[in-house]
């Protein structure tokens, strides 16, 4: 039963006992910086619909939560899980190019986290070359990764959705106006909430 009066009246009419839905669990989500010398990158993929082009974005921050750079990359027509893999590959490539070799990657994709954990190269052929380059780069880095909830990945989510309107790869050395409030919230340790 959905905890409404209509359901209760119907159940009483048939002389049945209702079993109310359980109350949601509310979890506090706070972005946490890393140890000195490490950089954190949060990544995400996005799409307007299942048949549209996909895009990915990410943000690099140092151990004090200051923005080191962020990216938006429009992608061709790929599946959602391929967009998440490409987001990880692109982020690692940017880190490699900038000489950031102590990286902690956070993704809300359990698929990406599973593949990073196993260092598996069993990925779709369209993203295999980028993924193999990613695996090579992380073998030469101090690299960690973790799965996070979408609520803890708000800046990367905003960046990837912003890329849906772009036609070229973009890199910025600071946060953009549309996500600066989210970045500030992370820097100040403000919490958001996840309902499950």
Q: Could you say which overall geometry the principal axes of the C-alpha atoms support?
A: globular
Query: Which percent band covers the strand fraction?
Result: 25-35%
Number of strands: 8
Q: Determine the CATH topology.
A: Nucleotidyltransferase, domain 5
What is the terminal-to-terminal distance? 18 Å
List low-pLDDT spans. Answer: none
Rg = 20 Å
Structural class call reads: alpha/beta
Helical proportion, percent range: 25-40%
Give the H and E element order. Answer: HEEEEHEHHEHEHE
The CATH class is Alpha Beta
Fold and architecture overview:
A hairpin with a 6-residue loop joins strand 2 (39-47) and strand 3 (54-62). The chain is of the alpha/beta class and 196 residues long. It is built from 6 helices and 8 strands; from the N terminus they run H-E-E-E-E-H-E-H-H-E-H-E-H-E. It has a single domain, classed as 2-Layer Sandwich (Nucleotidyltransferase, domain 5). Residues 42-163 form the RNase H type-1 domain. InterPro entries: RNase_H-like, RNase_H-like_dom_plant, RNaseH-like_sf, RNaseH_domain, RNaseH_sf.
């Amino acid at each position: 039963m959905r905890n409404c009066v209509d359901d209760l009246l119907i159940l009483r009419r048939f002389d049945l006992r209702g079993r109310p839905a359980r109350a949601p669990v509310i979890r506090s989500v706070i972005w946490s910086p890393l140890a000195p010398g490490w950089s954190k990158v949060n990544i995400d993929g996005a799409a307007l619909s299942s048949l549209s082009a996909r895009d990915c974005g990410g943000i690099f921050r140092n151990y004090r939560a200051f923005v080191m750079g962020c990216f938006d990359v429009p992608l061709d027509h790929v599946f959602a899980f391929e967009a998440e893999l490409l987001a990880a590959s692109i982020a690692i490539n940017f880190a490699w190019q900038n000489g950031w070799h102590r990286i902690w990657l956070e993704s809300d994709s359990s698929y990406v986290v599973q593949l990073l954990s196993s260092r598996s190269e069993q990925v779709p052929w369209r993203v295999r070359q980028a993924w193999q380059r990613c695996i090579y780069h992380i073998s030469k880095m101090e690299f960690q990764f973790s799965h996070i909830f979408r609520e803890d990945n708000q800046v990367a989510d905003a960046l990837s959705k912003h890329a849906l309107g772009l036609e070229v790869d973009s890199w910025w050395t600071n946060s953009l106006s549309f996500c600066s409030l989210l970045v500030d919230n992370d820097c100040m340790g403000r919490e958001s909430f996840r309902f499950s």
